[in-house]
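Subject: Sanity check before I submit

Could someone independently write out the structure tokens for this chain? I want to compare against mine line by line before I put it in a report. The sequence has 462 residues.
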Amino acid sequence: MNRQKLGQENQQTYLWFREAAERGNAYAQFNLALLYKKGEGVPRDDTRAVAWLRLAAMQGLAFAQNHLGAMYYHGRGVARCDTEAARWFRRAAEQGDASAQQNLGHMCRQGRGVAHDPERALSRYYRAAEQGMPGAQNQLGECYLEGIGTAVNHPLAMAWFRKAALQGDAPAQLNLGLMYQRGQGVDANDKQALYWFRKAAAAGERGAQRQLGIAYAEGRGVRADPRRACAWLTRAADHGDREAQFLLGNMYASGAGIETDERRALDLYTGAARLGHVAAQYNLANMHAHGRGTERDPKQAFEWYRRAAEQGAANAQFNLGVSFANGQGVERDEARAAHWYRLAAEQGDASAQNNLGVMYASGRGLPHDDRLAVYWYEQAAEQGHALAQYNLGGMIGSGLGVARDPVRAYMWMLLAAEGGDATANVNKSIVARRLSPSEIGRALDLSHKWQLSHREGRNRQE
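---
Independent answer below. Compare away.
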């Protein structure tokens, strides 16, 4: 059928619906509203769509009530109003409209227009799911998977995901694949996961496209193939999936199975960073800081470190502290440097702990306090930070902030040298001259015990 003939038929359909709608036929009013929503036979006009939906809804037509609620929910043709959206969804749901029950379930789950009520959301989803609504079946599966309004129940989650997936619901297919991948409610099975990821990916589900990319990158359920991984991640990235943009950026930055392209990596990190991806923001900051894929730009580096730091990324908080301490991309401010070092240090960042110790020891940006300097050096030293081990050894050897103990001081000096600190490697022989053979032996024994205990700790974590 050519476009001209189709346009003529749409116009004729509009005229029929318009005549019946003006006579008060609710179904005609509803259908006329749909024509205005879609711009079929008439120019698209959401305001007129709302007007005709309202007339049909006032006559009790559930379809119209549900659509009117959606217009209020999204703010199309009318000012957005969650209360009005919930009111119209409720009126349609009370007549058994499955789509409205699902929509009302969303509002109860989100606390939009109604009180936040996970149990009521579950009930609404269940009513719609029982009527065969695949979207509601998927949402019901998510409730059982995450314990929303009910206890976590993996078998029930899988059962509802499967019902929706078999109807072609892409989000459910993705969720079913993830359950097979993680072994939730079933033995882990990468091939079954891949089967469902492929179905969802073919339907354009970007999360599934990302999962396929990861599967090909890692060889999960399929032979590793970096080029296919890149292809699937690119599809997801082009659809705005920020995690796919980040992962693809990593591939181009490192040349993992594909040709290195730092400019492409920079663009991908930028896309993900603008969508709030913390790790992408951090990587983007590093690229601007070191001039990778672009000219070196300390101000851009500072800005992206700041964004990641404000989202709680310890590594970004540390680098933001360095930026303030050295005046890189921002005016030098040691007090603010100490603030960001502290935030990172409290999350266990060893480099930040060491730098915070330095600031307490020197009284730069913070009041001078040898005891706190020792405390933070010790936190970092116990994590194997070589410079902190050297600094801690110096404090213990001088009796600053802690009782003087030449043996323990030498122990930390040995560990720092072993960890690659050049200054400790040079100075350890000088320090050793001040100790007796028995003291050196005790220090060696302590350093060996420390290395052994920390090696065992790492093995347990792995």
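---
OP: Matches mine. For the report I'm noting this point. DSSP finds 25 helices and no strands in the chain.
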